[in-house]
Each structure stands twice: as structure tokens, then as C-alpha cells.
Design goal:
Layout (H helix, E strand, L loop, with lengths): L3 H24 L4 E11 L3 E2 L2 E2 L1 E4 L9 E9 L8 H8 L5 E4 H4 L6 H26 L8 E4 L10 H12 L13 E4 L2 E2 L5 E2 L4 H10 L4 E5 L3 H6 L6 E5 L2 H13 L8
Parallel strand pairs: 5-8, 8-11, 11-12
Antiparallel strand pairs: 1-5, 1-6, 2-3, 4-7, 9-10
Helix pairs in contact: 4-5
Length: 263
């Protein structure tokens, strides 16, 4: 049997390693990244003084409204993310804690990640151009499209690039703008056949979109639930699966005719 003094000594002795374990848990680096709403860019306008979309070989329209691609910002792969950061991010609506491997390919250096993201962006731009020109039946015409967006990597701007090309070349098909003068934002990959794919981080992207004035957000249909989870007031979600579907929805919204799908 321990005396009272002995019990205190034992409890103190046990508390020291327990406090140590808690300290380690709080401060040890964890395999997560913390993401937040990032920048947006109007693909119909300029980014850092350079037009995002430049088209030659065909007349282009003067557009109104905006088509804003959206991004998230995540802590770099070598940033120390602690348990405290994870707990803080878990309870905040303007942050998301994501497995680092879901944000950055496992085992790659920062330079390799940047190169990978640049390659994905280039492939996305090529696919977006092909999808848009095919949709407009201009794939065989002598039309050259150049896309430039500084400091952004990855494939998630593909849908917005395609829509921007369509708007500049054709608008709504009857002289009007796809945007109807609105600020429309969105996200989604696109392939050469015009199929829209999921991207991740859409709840944060909706916040970035609303912050920068968007009232409409185009979201890959499979990510509707995620987009609705933290949807800012005043932002309308439109699910899309194809470039044609996205164009049709925007035209219906602009003209006030036809069905506009919702999540």
C-alpha cells in the first residue's frame, strides 16, 4: 500500500511522460496539408497584365461579365503541420485539412511537384482548346489559341478555359454573352471530348468565388454534395458533366428560358 506521499510521487512521475507525449503529439509534424480559398482569375480578361486567352485566325467577340477560374492554396510539402494546426483547421469553415499525398504526389520534391503541376496545366490547356474548337465545329479551321495564367498549376481550370474560348468566339450563339453580364465562377477538369471531371477542394473554391464577386458557380456534378457543405450565401450552384451542358445551362440562365440544373 502506498502512503499519501508515495501516491503523489507516483502520480507526478506518471504525469511527466504523459505531458511529454501530449507535447510531442501537438508539435510533431503530421502528414497533412492545410488548404484555404486561393486566388481566382477572369479567363476573359488579363492576369498580371497579359490576356489569359489570345485567339488568332478567327474574329473574336468583345465580352462582358466574367468567367473566373478558382484555386485553393495549400501549405507547402515541407511546411510543419502540427496536431494543433489540424484541430484548428478541422473546426474552421475557411480551411480544410487534407492528406499531404492528396495534395502533393508522395515522395516528390518541391521542384518536381512544380514541374508536375506545370505539365498538368499545359495538358489541360491543350484539352480545353480542343474541346472548345470541337464544340464550335472549328477543330479543322486555322484557329490558334494561346492560354496564359501565371503562377497556377494543375488541370482544374480546364472547363473555364473552354468556356472562355467559346464565349470569345461564339458567345451564346445569338450575339449575347455566355455570362449574361454576370460574374460566373467554377472549376473542373476537361478532356478533349468535352467531358468534365472532378477536382477536389470545391467547398473552398466556392468561398473564393463568392469573395471575388461570383453569383454563379459551375461544379462537377459528382462534387455537388461537397460544394453545398459550406456554400456561401448568394452563390448559385450549377452541376455540369460536359462542356455542352455547361454552355446550355449558362444560355438558359442568361435568356431565362429552359431548365437550369441545380445541385
Amino acid at each position: 500500500m502506498f502512503s499519501r506521499v508515495s501516491r503523489v510521487q507516483v502520480l507526478v512521475g506518471c504525469a511527466v511522460p504523459l505531458v511529454g507525449l501530449i507535447a510531442v503529439a501537438v508539435f510533431v509534424p503530421l502528414p497533412f496539408s492545410v488548404a484555404q480559398p486561393g486566388m481566382t482569375a477572369n479567363v476573359l480578361g488579363e492576369n498580371k497584365g497579359t490576356p489569359v486567352i489570345t485567339i488568332s485566325g478567327a474574329p473574336t467577340r468583345r465580352t462582358t461579365g466574367q468567367l473566373r477560374m478558382t484555386t485553393i492554396e495549400a501549405t507547402s510539402p515541407d511546411t510543419h503541420v502540427s496536431l494543433g494546426d489540424v484541430v484548428d483547421g478541422w473546426f474552421r469553415t475557411d480551411q480544410a485539412v487534407m492528406p499531404r499525398d492528396a495534395v502533393y504526389p508522395s515522395g516528390e520534391s518541391t521542384k518536381e511537384i512544380e514541374r508536375h503541376n506545370t505539365e498538368q496545366m499545359k495538358a489541360s490547356q491543350d484539352a480545353a482548346t480542343e474541346a472548345a474548337l470541337t464544340y464550335l465545329h472549328r477543330a479543322d479551321d486555322d484557329v490558334t489559341v494561346t492560354l496564359k495564367l501565371a503562377d497556377v498549376g494543375g488541370p482544374s481550370a480546364g472547363l473555364l478555359f473552354s468556356l472562355g474560348i467559346v464565349d470569345k468566339l461564339n458567345g451564346d450563339g445569338s450575339g449575347g454573352d455566355l455570362t449574361g453580364g454576370r460574374t460566373v465562377a467554377g472549376t473542373g477538369t476537361i478532356d478533349a471530348e468535352g467531358r468534365v471531371g472532378a477536382v477536389g477542394g470545391v467547398a473552398l473554391k466556392t468561398q473564393a468565388a463568392r469573395r471575388d464577386g461570383a453569383t454563379v458557380f459551375l461544379v462537377p456534378k459528382d462534387e455537388c454534395s461537397q460544394a453545398k457543405s459550406e456554400l456561401p450565401a448568394g452563390l448559385r450552384l450549377i452541376p455540369v458533366t460536359t462542356l455542352k451542358g455547361a454552355v446550355d445551362s449558362l444560355v438558359s440562365l442568361e435568356k431565362g428560358k429552359g431548365r437550369v440544373p441545380s445541385c
